[in-house]
Amino acid sequence: MPLMDHLRELRNRLVKAMLGLVAGAIVGWIFFDPIWDFLKKPFTRIPPEHCINHHCDLVVHGIFDGFFIHLKVALIVGAVISSPIWLYQLWAFVAPGLYKRERRWTYIFMTAAVPLFLAGGALAYLTMDKGLKIFIGLAPGDTTVLVGIQEYLGYAQAMLLIFGLTFELPLFVVVLNRAGVLTHARIRKSRRMLIFGIFVFAAVATPSQDPFTMLALALPTLVLFEVAEVLAYFHDRRKDRAPDPYEGLSDDEASPIDLDEIDRQIDSGDRSGDRTH
C-alpha cells in the first residue's frame, strides 16, 4: 500500500475510534452522579477525625472545577466503554501486515488485554483508601485535611491507569516470546533483575508511594510475570521439539513452501485488486 493510502487508513481508523470515545463520554456525562459516587467511596473511608465535623467531603477550589470534573469522568467512562471499538480499530490497522498465524495469536492477546486492564483497575480501586489512610493519618490530630476534588480525581486516575497498564506488561512478554524476540532462556537469566525492577517500578510509579500500595502493585505483577515465564517455557520447548523443515536439505534441493507467505501475498493482491476496481 502506498504511503498516502496508509495515512488515509490511519485517519479513518482514528476518526472511528474518536467517535466511539465521544459516544462513551456522552454516556459517562449522563450517568455522572452514580459514577462519581462510586469513584469517591475510597475517600469516604479515610480517618474521620481529620475531617470537618467528622464528615469527609471533597473541596471545590475553583469556579470551573465542577465542569472539568464532569468532563474528566465522562472521558474516563468513554475510554472504558469504547475500548472494544478503539482496540478493534487498532487491530484492523495492524492486521493486514501480519501473517495468518500471527493474526490468530493477536486475537487471543487482544482478548486478554481488556480483562487484565480491568483487573488492574479493580485492584487499584480496592487499595486506594489504604494509601489515603496512611498519609492522611500522618497529619497531626488537631488538624483538618482539605482535599481538593481535582487533586483526588487526579490521584484516582493515576492509580487506575498505572495498575491497569502494569498488568499488561506480562502480556507483552508473551507476545515477544511468540514473535521469537525474547526467549525463555533470556527471561530465566534475567529473573533477578526483573524481580528487582518490578519492585523499583512499583515504588516509583504508584502515586502515593506508600509500602502497602507498592506491594499491592508489585506482588500481583510478579505473579503475572511468573505465568508469562511458564508460557514462554512451554512455547520454546514445543518449538525446539518441532522438526526443522530445512534440516537435511542439500544446496541443490528446493526448500519447503511457506504457505503463510503465499496466503499473505494472495490477500495483498486481493486488496490491491479491490482498490483498482
From TrEMBL:
The Tat system comprises two distinct complexes: a TatABC complex, containing multiple copies of TatA, TatB and TatC subunits, and a separate TatA complex, containing only TatA subunits. Substrates initially bind to the TatABC complex, which probably triggers association of the separate TatA complex to form the active translocon. Residues 240-277 are annotated as: Disordered. It is a multi-pass membrane protein. This is Sec-independent protein translocase protein TatC. Residues 262-277 have a biased composition (Basic and acidic residues). Part of the twin-arginine translocation (Tat) system that transports large folded proteins containing a characteristic twin-arginine motif in their signal peptide across membranes. Together with TatB, TatC is part of a receptor directly interacting with Tat signal peptides. It is found in: Cell membrane; Membrane. Belongs to the TatC family. It comes from the Bacteria. The chain crosses the membrane at residues 14-32, 67-93, 105-126, 158-181, 193-209, 215-234. One of its GO terms (molecular function) is proton motive force dependent protein transmembrane transporter activity. Pfam families: TatC. It comes from Actinomadura barringtoniae. PANTHER family: SEC-INDEPENDENT PROTEIN TRANSLOCASE PROTEIN TATC (PTHR30371), SEC-INDEPENDENT PROTEIN TRANSLOCASE PROTEIN TATC, CHLOROPLASTIC-RELATED (PTHR30371:SF0). GO terms for cellular component: TAT protein transport complex. Residues 249-261 have a biased composition (Acidic residues).
